[in-house]
Amino acid sequence: MSALLDSQALTLRADGRTLLNALDWRLEAGQCWAVIGRNGAGKSTLLRTLAGLRTAEGGRIQLAGRALADWPLAGRARQLGYLPQSWRDAFACQVLDALLIARHPHRQAYWDSAEDIASARAALAALDIGHLAARDIRTLSGGERQRVAVAALLTQDAPLLLLDEPAAALDIGHQAQLLALLAARCQRPGHAVMLVSHELNLTLQHASHALLLLDDGRWRALPVAELSDELLSACLGHPLLEIQRDGRRYWLPAAGP
Q1: What is residue 241's three-state secondary structure?
Q2: Does pLDDT of 97 surpass 80?
Q3: Whether residue 257 has pLDDT greater than 60
Q4: Beta strand 32-36 pairing with 192-196
């Protein structure tokens, strides 16, 4: 059975540095992958490459068993959704209309269908922002705008979601809500999620697998259950201590010198 997304010998470089060397990796339905690494390690570059927004310096990427570059854009958008780390709203529009734009890959006619509108409203409800539907998107707070961006991604209704720092600008309650929502989405048949996040403990409570970007293009891909404080410390460049409470593991930064 084909993976939802996989790479063979994927190599990424930037500014004369090798960010990722020969990544052989598979993302399968039901999995939630967390990409972990220091600032500048190449996490955002990796997600942009997997989304087809930049060309890798080497190797291959396949989406549902087909070369990523061979997918027509609308077909790719029905299979894969991508949330960037930042964006700019170029013009005023209502929040609901912003979500309906994300239905374009599914649209069969010029006008929004009842299904399109229902999908958008369901996504707003899932993020507890149904009350913002008629608001001008440019009047939202940073946290509200972030939740609208995630809602738009859900409205796109792709089975595979790639998210770059989706919890940025959110308070702790909405961070927890969002990560639980993404983990629950992975339980739907044929669905999976991959996300970059610096919210280490919250993310690892919900992720099933981790992709660690290490120095000099090295990487490790493994189930979260196999993570250790030594491995995370090496990945993040700072000593971490593992603690356990109520059957869960947490990692805290060790005190400085």
Answers
A1: strand
A2: yes
A3: no
A4: parallel
DSSP strand pairing (192-196 vs 160-164): parallel
Pick the CATH number of 5-226 from 3.40.50.720, 3.40.50.300, 3.90.550.10, 3.40.190.10: 3.40.50.300
Burial class (CB in 10 A: 0-12, 13-18, 19+), 171: exposed
Confidence of residue 163 (pLDDT cuts 50, 70, 90): very high
Domain residues of the chain, as ranges? 5-226
Average of per-residue pLDDT values in the chain: 94
- In three-state form (DSSP H/G/I as H, E/B as E, the rest C), the secondary structure along 176-211 is HHHHHHHHHHCCCCCCEEEEECCCHHHHHHHCCEEE
Structure tokens at 81: 């959704």
pLDDT at 111: 77
C-alpha to C-alpha distance for 84 and 128, rounded to whole angstroms: 21
Q: How many whole angstroms separate alpha carbon 163 and alpha carbon 35?
A: 10
**What is the C-alpha to C-alpha distance for residues 197 and 205, in angstroms, rounded to an integer?**
12
- The answer to whether 210 and 227 have CB atoms below 8 angstroms apart is yes
CA-to-CA dists, residue 17 to 9, 11, 35, 42, 196, angstroms: 17, 11, 19, 10, 20
C-alpha distance from residue 238 to each of 84, 88, 233, 252 (Å): 27, 33, 5, 10
Q: Which amino acid is at 83?
A: L
